[in-house]
Write a sequence for this structure.
């Protein structure tokens, strides 16, 4: 009877709050960081700088998998129990790694890496090319109904309460989502990231079940094989765009070609795989 109801834990609340705070802190880096680069660099250099930003962002999960691999080799109660008293190994199904240690290391590293942002200047000297209207703004003005120039009164910072009320927010949202190029790119990004995240999430578990690998080794293999090629591809894409000075249409054709090749190669996954393990009571009868 004592095994029917296990003691509950509320540690998941701390993980939920920590993930929420991490997301709040990480979110401004991509939109504001790209805008910061776009405003204060030459237009032909923007693809390389943005590619570097996303490449470094892909290195984070890679090191995260490697850190997870290291932590999974350590027993969950490390520091609280005598290592000599542990009679099981990481290959044992009862083994639980020190999953909590990665949160402490990652949190401390994120805190330290955020300190340099406090010393970034509010504004940099713009190059001559950047003082002109950007292509993105011209694209929005051409496809949207409102093509009015920004006046000094409109460039003043507005309060959140003012931005979310009335026609200002509605018109801005309608102008952005009404841009066919941006909306199509948004839909493509949703599909690509959804498939990529699902692939990275379940691939380690697949390796554990099908190949009999430990959690530590599965995370290590994912970290050194799956994510570095993605970062390399992002960086090479930025270099190619800079070398050939691609505009909106050329970049769209380039993206279409690469996405189609990626899709065609991904179809090969249907021809590669292993048979499911025989599990009594699930795939076969107990007899």
């Amino acid at each position: 009877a004592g095994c029917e109801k296990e003691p509950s834990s509320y540690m998941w609340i701390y993980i939920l709050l920590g993930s929420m705070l991490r997301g709040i802190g990480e979110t401004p880096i991509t939109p504001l960081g790209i805008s910061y680069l776009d405003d204060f660099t030459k237009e032909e250099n923007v693809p390389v700088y943005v590619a570097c930003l996303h490449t470094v962002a892909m290195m984070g999960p890679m090191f995260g998998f490697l850190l997870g691999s290291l932590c999974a080799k350590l027993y969950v109660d490390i520091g609280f129990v005598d290592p000599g008293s542990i009679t099981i190994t990481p290959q044992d199904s009862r083994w639980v790694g020190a999953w909590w240690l990665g949160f402490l290391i990652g949190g401390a590293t994120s805190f330290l890496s955020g300190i340099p942002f406090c010393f970034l200047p509010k504004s940099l000297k713009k190059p001559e090319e950047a003082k002109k209207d950007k292509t993105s703004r011209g694209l929005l003005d051409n496809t949207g109904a409102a093509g009015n120039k920004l006046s000094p009164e409109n460039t003043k910072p507005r309060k959140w309460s003012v931005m979310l009320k009335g026609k200002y927010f509605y018109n801005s949202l309608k102008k952005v989502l009404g841009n066919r190029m941006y909306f199509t790119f948004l839909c493509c990004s949703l599909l690509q990231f959804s498939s990529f995240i699902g692939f990275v999430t379940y691939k380690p578990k697949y390796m554990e079940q099908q190949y009999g690998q430990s959690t530590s080794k599965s995370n290590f293999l994912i970290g050194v094989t799956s994510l570095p090629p993605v970062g390399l591809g992002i960086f090479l894409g930025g270099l190619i765009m800079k070398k050939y000075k691609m505009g909106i249409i050329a970049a769209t054709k380039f993206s279409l070609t690469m996405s189609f090749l990626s899709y065609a190669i991904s179809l090969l996954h249907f021809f590669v795989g292993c048979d499911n393990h025989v599990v009594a009571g699930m795939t076969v009868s107990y007899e």
